[in-house]
């Protein structure tokens, strides 16, 4: 079986697994405890914060550890909205955000906030002018992702950041960086981002831990209360082993970014060209997109049918993002790009990782051809 779902979860580095095991065995003390083992566990967290900060080019006190990027995104959006509610109750985001941002905005809307959802163009990229035009005096937050998790479309964050700040310098800018880190350059300062979310398990780290960068001077309304951990913004006993292993994965994947691109880009380009040559497919990714995602629609059948057929043929792919793949509804992201409902139901996402080779891509291409042939016959038979 060949695994093509790195954008959903990636296999942890061997060093990550070893670190997890070692820390769980040796440093099980609670970092809040005042005794020496507790202080040692706390020191490990401090060190991990420094490692993550160095990888992101920010200060250690600007890094918070959470339970995952879903929590980081919830905390960024709702924590900022609640904290700065006296400044205004308007938020700007896009129609293509991950559900953890999108639904946080919908929840705030149900509580009386106004939300402007900016639509992308047909390539899945949002126009910085449109984002800036939506910013008002009472806009507290703008949230735009770095790389879309379905199509791999890369958003022009530098332009968006500078236009937001020109429109209203008090408006905070949040970036969901989950699918960009380790693949593209992360430029928190150049983007003028105040908040940035990261998920270690997308870059060969452990699951169940997330990172949120909070710019010095920005405060958030805590969503979890009951302890003074993480500067009182995120209560709960830290997962020391996962935090230390995350820092390792963030450092390693950051250092390997260029090598990763060199290896993966030719494979991505080959695959993109291949799927573009299949007349039955509508391709939803482009060469300008992130190096690890190829997404296409096969409108003849539901994406799930295609994914199951490919699995029978030894290829594990995804229909869209793992977080929404159990929904039978058309993809909100594809609809917002102007795809029709058959296309939005027939999405298939292939995501590459550093284990892949030319031979793997050749095998996947063969499987795609076989699947289309088989499904075309079934389709014709049922009409
Ligand atoms: N944002 C994006 C863009 C994602 O792809 C994901 C993972 N599907 C998340 C947020 C949520 O991350 P986590 O799995 O760490 O909660």
Automatic annotation (TrEMBL):
<dbReference type="InterPro" id="IPR015424">
    <property type="entry name" value="PyrdxlP-dep_Trfase"/>
</dbReference>
<dbReference type="InterPro" id="IPR015421">
    <property type="entry name" value="PyrdxlP-dep_Trfase_major"/>
</dbReference>
<keyword id="KW-0808">Transferase</keyword>
<dbReference type="InterPro" id="IPR016454">
    <property type="entry name" value="Cysteine_dSase"/>
</dbReference>
<dbReference type="Pfam" id="PF00266">
    <property type="entry name" value="Aminotran_5"/>
</dbReference>
<dbReference type="InterPro" id="IPR015422">
    <property type="entry name" value="PyrdxlP-dep_Trfase_small"/>
</dbReference>
<dbReference type="GO" id="GO:0031071">
    <property type="term" value="F:cysteine desulfurase activity"/>
</dbReference>
<feature type="domain" description="Aminotransferase class V">
    <location>
        <begin position="3"/>
        <end position="364"/>
    </location>
</feature>
<keyword id="KW-0663">Pyridoxal phosphate</keyword>
<protein>
    <submittedName>
        <fullName>Cysteine desulfurase IscS</fullName>
        <ecNumber>2.8.1.7</ecNumber>
    </submittedName>
</protein>
<dbReference type="InterPro" id="IPR000192">
    <property type="entry name" value="Aminotrans_V_dom"/>
</dbReference>
